[in-house]
Amino acid sequence: MRFLDLARFSAGALRGHRLRTALSLTGVSIGVASVVLLTALGEGARRYVTGEFASLGSNLLIVFPGKTETTGLSPFVTGAPHDLTLDDAEAIARRVPLARRVAPVAFGGAVARYGDRSRDVGVWGATSDLAVVRKIRLASGRYLPEGEASRGQRVCVLGAKIRDELFGATSPLGEFLRLGDERFRVIGVMVPRGLSMGADLDEMVHVPVSRAMQMFNRTSLFRVLIEVSSHEEIPRAKLAVIRLMTERHGGEEDVTIWTQDSVVATFSRILALLTATLAGIAAVSLTVAGVGIMNVMLVSVSERTREIGLLKALGVTARQVVAAFLVEAAIISTAGGAAGLAAASAGAWLLRALYPSFPVRAPEWAIPAAVGLALGVGLLFGVLPARRAARLEPIAALARR
Amino acid sequence: MIELEGIGRDFSVGEDTVHALSGIDLVIPDGDYVSLMGPSGSGKSTLLHIIGCLDRPTAGSYRLDGREASQLSEEELSRIRRHQIGFVFQFYHLVPRLSAAGNVELPMIFAGVDPKERARRVAEALETVGLSSRARHRSEQLSGGERQRVAIARAIVMGPKILLADEPTGNLDTTAGAEIVRHLEKENARGLTLVVVTHDHDLGRRARHRLQLVDGKIVSEEGALRPAPAAAGGAAG
User: Fold this and answer.
1) Is the pLDDT of residue A401 over 60?
2) Whole-complex ipTM
3) Among residues B98, B184, B55, which one has the least CA distance to residue A309?
4) Which of A204, A223, A253 is the last residue of a domain?
């Protein structure tokens, strides 16, 4: 028989029971919608988090003085046999070609004063490269001047919170900020960044690195940030830096290199797992919808016993009866799947409208997976009713009035 | 040609076995007009179902045009029902959601007949039973007699050789019943073998070849085994 005729016959049977058809269609569409929406949420979370990490610079290596024995991620390393010096940083910039930018950082705490206001601040000793490496953007003014590694002018760049708390409404540019015993001219203000790796970047003041080291009377850097041009170069760059540092520190490997790679990968894995979990939960709801289809089809079979008996008397084969019922199940799940996709994209659109920063988007695999699953579930759960229909004895079926 | 030899049909009901039919020997030549009569439970419907390949005998041999039915697969039996046999039931068994035309079209849809051809044959069959004007009506909009005429149209639309009717007038008043009998006999006159199950004596007497069943056995047979007259009038009275 022709497939189109079969489809028309099955569609006619479904139209004959509108309420029942509508209910099971709703079940399937809720299942499909939840698969797509929940994976979209999980995927959104993953994108959001990896996006946050990427904004820190994913081509970054961070060198700490001292060697940790564990592979832990803590940047606070104990026992540094050799200092990590500005010369070391310059050596890396000079001798490791993969290092596109090298930003040495010193760190200390100081009391900042302006007029009669004061507060504790974190002071970063930095160079102009740090702005590039950490993607620092300025609300006003400019960042530390180039070539300031060793000259150490008394200039500073303020975090957003410092600016607000010490300067209030007045423009800080060109004003002098007292840090400890020294006065620094304010040359720029950074845009708010919030917390990053446990430190509030908005509570920092950046000054030239050599100036900071003098201020705090330190010989060792806090860390050296190295940017490479691509992700893939990180392992090679890491080896080169370790080799160079070992050579400079008398054959002792006494630096620790941390990359964001591992963290991003871990988070990404966790969140992918989360997405899979959500998809699993959604698949359960789709299965429930499948049981709903089966229920509807079974009712349909027992209600249409006479019709099935008649079909058999008319010479319709058992196989054709199975096909007719499976096509009904397929129609329900396809239509339900389409409705579910429409509902899911409406829901995703709504979420995006409400929370623009949260990228709710179903992963590419979710949509075919949801539709395929709906169809599979529909057919799977359609088989039992269809076979029951096909096995009906025509005489018994016809005997009923 | 329908040939039954020693046909028996047992049903198990709980631990008991009911012999619905036993030792049925019957030959129905092509074009014959047979009535099966008998009280309720005499096995006449079971016999009709066996002839129509809807049921299988538990004993004996049934040959349809020389082919042993017990050796045919379900698939082949379906094909025989589709092409050789038309059924008419007491309760019409129309599909309620379909129109008269839709019901007549039904067997052709599953037989894979081309839509144009289907439309032509539906019109022709409805014309035959005088229901052309009712083609678009659904069964609830039709009278009992009209429904049964739709059922006849559906039974003949595939061009079968055998027409089997199970109490075709059982649910109809005398006038409508007579109309149905007229249509069935017209088909017999065209050369179809007609087998009617009934307990209406007036209807039963009209057949050339009359059988009485009691307790699953043939107790009387009249007018048997005459070669079918080519296309003579069926009303033997």
Assistant:
1) no
2) 0.86
3) B55
4) A253
